[in-house]
Each structure stands twice: as C-alpha cells, then as structure tokens.
UniProtKB/TrEMBL annotation:
It is found in: Membrane. The keyword Transmembrane applies. It comes from Paenibacillus albiflavus. The chain crosses the membrane at residues 12-30, 42-64, 85-116, 136-159, 171-194, 214-238, 250-276, 296-328, 340-359, 379-400, 421-443. It holds the Pfam family SNF. One of its GO terms (cellular component) is membrane. This is Transporter. CDD domains: SLC6sbd_Tyt1-Like. Keywords: Membrane, Symport, Transmembrane, Transmembrane helix, Transport. GO terms for molecular function: symporter activity. It is a multi-pass membrane protein. The keyword Transmembrane helix applies.
Length: 446
C-alpha cells in the first residue's frame, strides 16, 4: 500500500530529518566535551566515526524506511515476515515514548525561560541564576504546565500531517535556527577576549584525548543522528522513491556537524570573554549563559535569540519522537492521525509528570538510586539506544535481502554495486563491535 503521507520536497525531508538529529545534546553537551577532550583532535576522531559509523547507520535506517514505505513495525515485518525482527520497531517506538516523556520536561524549562526572556524578567531578579533554576524547576505547577504546553505545540504540528505539519514547521524553524546561530556567532566572536574561547574550543590537544573521550566520540557518532530508535525509518518511509539516499544522508550529517561547530563558536568565546566556567548540561543553558547575557550590551535581545534557538532545536526533535509513535498506530491511515496524535501526546504527558516533578516534590523518590527523570534518561540513552543501534546494524547486514540492498543503493550510482560489499562488512562486523565497546564502557567494564 502506498504511504498516504509524503514529503513535498527533498529539502523538506532533509530539514525535518536534520531537525530530528539536531537536539539539545548536539548544542550544549557535544561542544563542551569537544573543548575539554582535545578540541580539534577530538573533532577529528568524531568526524571519522561519524563518516564510518554514524553515516552508514543513518543510511541503513533510510533504506529500511524508503524501500518499504511503511511505519517502523510494518517495515521490519515486510522485509522479514518470519521471526521477531518487527520487535525492533516496537523497541524504537517504546524508546521514543520514554525519551519524549523526559525530553518534554526540558522543553518546558526552555519555554519558561523563553517567556521570561521575552518579558525581560529573566535578567532582572534578585536571585543568582543557579538559585533561579532550582526555584523554577522545583515549582510543580510551573514545570508541569510548561511541559504540557510544549507537548501541545508538538501535537498540533504532528496532527497536521507530514507535509503540512512537520515539513512546514521544519522549513521555518531550521533556517531560522541557523540564522539565529550566525547572529550569535558574530556577536560572540566580536567580544573582547573571544580568541581565547576559540582556541580552547578548536586547538588540537592530543594529550587530552583520553580513552573515555574516544569512546564518547564513538557513541556520539550515532547518538547525535537520531539513529537507533527507527525515527529515520519512519521519516524515510514518506520519501519519494526517486530521491537519492546517500546525498540526503550526507546533507543530514553535514547540517548536524555544522550546528555543533556553530554552537561552539557561539558559546565558548562568550564564556571566556566574561571569565565564566564552561559546563555541560542544564548548567550551561540555564545558569552560565544567562549570567553572560546579563553582562553583555543588548544582552536581553541576544538572550531571546538564544532561547528561541534552543526552543526550535528541541521542538524539531520532539516532532520526530511523537511522529514515530503516531505512525505505528495509524498505519498509514491519515484519517486517524489527528485523533491519535492527541491521545499519544496526552499519554506522554501523564507518564512524564513524575519526570517533571523529579526536581521538586518527587526529588526524594528514587528507583534504582535514580530520580524518575534520571532513570528515564539512563534507560533510553544508555540501554535502549545502543541495543537499537546494534540490532539495526545486524538486521541490515544479515537479514536485509542483498539484491534489494543493491537495488536501493544503485539508484544512487552504479559505483555502489561494488561499494555494497564494503558497506555490508561495516554493518556486519565493524559497527556491532563498536557498539559493544561503547556499551561495555557505559557499564564500566572497559
């Protein structure tokens, strides 16, 4: 059955897929790790892993989706009608649900900060920013309301469909994101002492390139491209059969790398210019950067730009997380999309409430020594994602029909007929070993 939903253009697909991949981790965590793990040396290692690990995995998911034109579960079932490979689709759907449940909490925080930056109140208060962050995240009514609003925005876009909802939103948000980035980069690079930040970010220092940094680069090469949860299987199922997957894959990877570099140029020159300490995670976005903008000329304007940028990046990823779940339920029937977008969205909100309260009323409630927020993050990021990546690599390497794989790849170029042999070897042997190494490092075995 032909997929009822389709991208209206190749650029629309690329922007939506890149938006899915360009999440908060690529903007606030990766630049920090790069800067503290050898700078340019780390980026070189990451670039090699992205080309030889991340890109082949991304292409694998695109091949699965485009060749079948079906949602994650039915795509695997179509290719492998016998056996249990369709459970890989269920795994991706469940992982997306879990990620969305805590990701929407962060989206809610960004909405709260964005609203305060618009009114100017974020830079005019009597608390230091670390205390302000604790106060905001500990307010149960504020965080749950903001989380709900973030989910409602996501539902509204996904319910409108692929081309009229996700694609249109991405065609506005992604160019806007890069324009906002360029504005911030120009401002950051023109600050006094900005060169120290650039040097800290990019200067190759192989002495800082530790084993942990190399393994992180290996893991990040597939984590930062939204692979492992079959999101790209779903997105590529809406892609026209005539489109070239290799070019699309390279475009998605390139946009992701560009975003990472722009984030570093926007953040570190400003951090060093004002003598602040660079940190990863929420501390950078909600504590360090507002402190910098407070001291900067026209800081309130640039703070609004920065919060809008983060909001766009967070929403574009949220669209894909909700889309894979909805696509599995509606099974290509567009008439059911609106209804189930709202149902699934509200289910995510209900499940995510304990995550949003993990910094307030439920902060003392733990399971396996972790708050509900940390547990959801750990389960999705460190267990389910690596398993998904490993199984997708095995599936395409061993179970996907070789003739069909050659057919899909040879639409790009006749050269791929020979390149398929090396591609399959990567998927069968190299990538599974890399994933196992990353997995063992997560649990402290290595």
């Amino acid at each position: 059955m032909k997929q009822e939903q389709q991208w209206s253009s190749k650029i629309g697909f690329i922007l939506a897929a890149a938006g899915s991949a360009i999440g908060l981790g690529a903007i606030w965590k990766f630049p920090y790790v790069m800067a503290t793990s050898g700078g340019g040396a780390f980026f070189l290692i990451f670039l090699l892993f992205t080309i030889f690990i991340g890109l082949p995995l991304l292409l694998a998911e695109l091949i699965i989706g485009r060749s079948t034109g079906k949602d994650a579960i039915r795509a695997y079932k179509t290719i492998a009608p016998t056996g249990y490979w369709h459970l890989l689709g269920y795994l991706g759907t469940a992982t997306s649900f879990i990620i969305f449940s805590f990701y929407s909490v962060i989206g809610g925080w960004i909405l709260l900060y964005f609203g305060r930056s618009l009114t100017g109140s974020l830079l005019h208060h009597n608390l230091v920013f670390s205390d302000l962050f604790k106060e905001i995240t500990a307010n149960p009514l504020a965080v749950t309301s903001a989380q709900l609003l973030f989910i409602l925005i996501t539902i509204y876009v996904v319910a409108k469909g692929v081309s009229t909802g996700i694609e249109k939103a991405s065609q506005f948000m992604m160019p806007a994101l890069f324009i906002l980035f360029l504005v911030l980069v120009v401002r950051s690079l023109t600050l006094e002492g900005a060169s120290e930040g650039v040097r800290y970010f990019l200067m190759p220092d192989f002495n800082k390139l530790t084993k942990d940094a190399v393994i992180y680069a290996m893991g990040q090469s597939f984590f930062c491209l939204s692979i492992g949860v079959s999101v790209m299987v779903t997105y590529s199922s809406y892609l026209d059969k005539r489109e070239t997957l290799t070019k699309s894959s390279i475009s998605i990877v390139s946009l992701n790398l560009l975003t990472t570099i722009l984030a570093g140029f926007a953040i570190f020159p400003a951090v060093f210019s004002f003598g602040m300490e660079p940190t990863a995670g929420p501390g950078l976005l909600f504590v360090v950067l507002p402190s910098i903008f407070e001291q900067m000329a026209f800081g309130s304007v640039f703070l609004v730009i920065f919060m809008a940028l983060f909001l766009f990046a967070t929403l574009s990823s949220a669209f894909s997380l909700l889309e894979i779940i909805v696509a599995v339920i509606v099974k290509g029937d567009a008439s059911k999309r609106k209804k189930y977008s709202w149902i699934v969205g509200f289910c995510v909100f209900l499940v995510g409430i304990p995550c949003s309260l993990s910094f307030g009323p439920m902060s003392d409630m733990t399971l396996f020594g972790k708050t509900f927020f940390d547990l959801a993050d750990y389960l999705a990021s460190y267990i389910l994602l690596p398993i998904g990546v490993f199984l997708i690599s095995i599936f395409v390497g061993y179970r996907f029909p070789r003739a069909r794989l050659v057919e899909e790849l040879c639409k790009e170029s006749a050269w791929w007929r020979k390149g398929t042999v090396y591609y399959v070897m990567l998927l069968r042997y190299i990538i599974p070993i890399v994933v196992i190494i990353v997995f063992l490092n997560i649990f402290g075995v290595l």
